[in-house]
């Protein structure tokens, strides 16, 4: 990296202070490094959410988590101003691991048989003197035919 001196101010009060691009880079590194850590944390959390969503088969939640992972990964790139590219590697690795583990967990969950629904057993029999109402159902409109309706009215 080349160091280029630049004049910071144009007024008399600045007295012609020169600042190199290396100094600007160091100032930006101190500012962007915490943002990179926050971005990597967001990316790892979103990757965990994506893994759980993949395991449960929730496609919408998976897409949302991966979309937010992209934002976290972009924020983790800012740590590159200080030469810390490990945060970006952690962000990328977390999504790759989440996608693989989510698919593996989904396939393992499909192997587990579903539990049968519990049958409700009434241990006390109904008393004999109580009349049980009989359900009377009307025929649905879809079950009626036009010919039947016309035959009932005498127009057929």
What is the count of helical runs?
4
For this structure, the quaternary state is single chain
Major sheet characteristics: 2 strands, antiparallel
Provide the succession of SSEs: EEHHHH
Which sequence of strands runs across the widest sheet? 1-2
- The gross shape turns out to be elongated
Number of strands: 2
Mean pLDDT: 81
Uncertain residue ranges: none
Distance between the termini: 97 Å
Derived from helix and strand composition plus strand pairing, the structural class reads mainly alpha
Q: Please report which band the strand proportion falls in: under 5%, 5-15%, 15-25%, 25-35%, 35-45% or over 45%.
A: under 5%
Helicity, as a percent range: 55-70%
Radius of gyration: 35 Å
Question: How does this model look, in words?
Answer:
The protein has 156 residues and is mainly alpha-helical. It has a domain at 5-111. The chain has helices at 21-56, 59-77, 86-111, 146-153; strands at residues 5-7, 18-20. Strands 1-2 form a two-stranded antiparallel ribbon. It starts with a strand and ends with a helix.
Brief account:
This protein is mainly alpha-helical. The protein has helices at 21-56, 59-77, 86-111, 146-153; strands at residues 5-7, 18-20. The protein has 4 helices and 2 strands.
């Amino acid at each position: 990296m080349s160091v280029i001196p630049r004049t910071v101010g144009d007024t008399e009060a600045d007295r012609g202070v020169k600042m190199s691009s290396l100094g600007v880079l160091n100032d930006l590194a101190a500012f962007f490094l915490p943002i990179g850590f926050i971005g990597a944390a967001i990316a790892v959390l979103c990757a965990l959410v994506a893994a759980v969503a993949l395991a449960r088969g929730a496609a919408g939640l998976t897409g949302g988590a991966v979309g937010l992972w992209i934002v976290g990964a972009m924020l983790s790139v800012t740590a590159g101003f200080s030469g810390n590219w490990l945060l970006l590697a952690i962000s990328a690795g977390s999504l790759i691991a989440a996608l693989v583990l989510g698919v593996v967990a989904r396939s393992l969950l499909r192997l587990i048989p579903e539990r049968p629904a519990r049958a409700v057993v009434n241990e006390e029999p109904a008393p004999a003197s109580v009349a049980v109402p009989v359900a009377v159902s009307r025929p649905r409109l879809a079950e009626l035919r036009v010919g039947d309706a016309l035959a009932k009215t005498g127009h057929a």
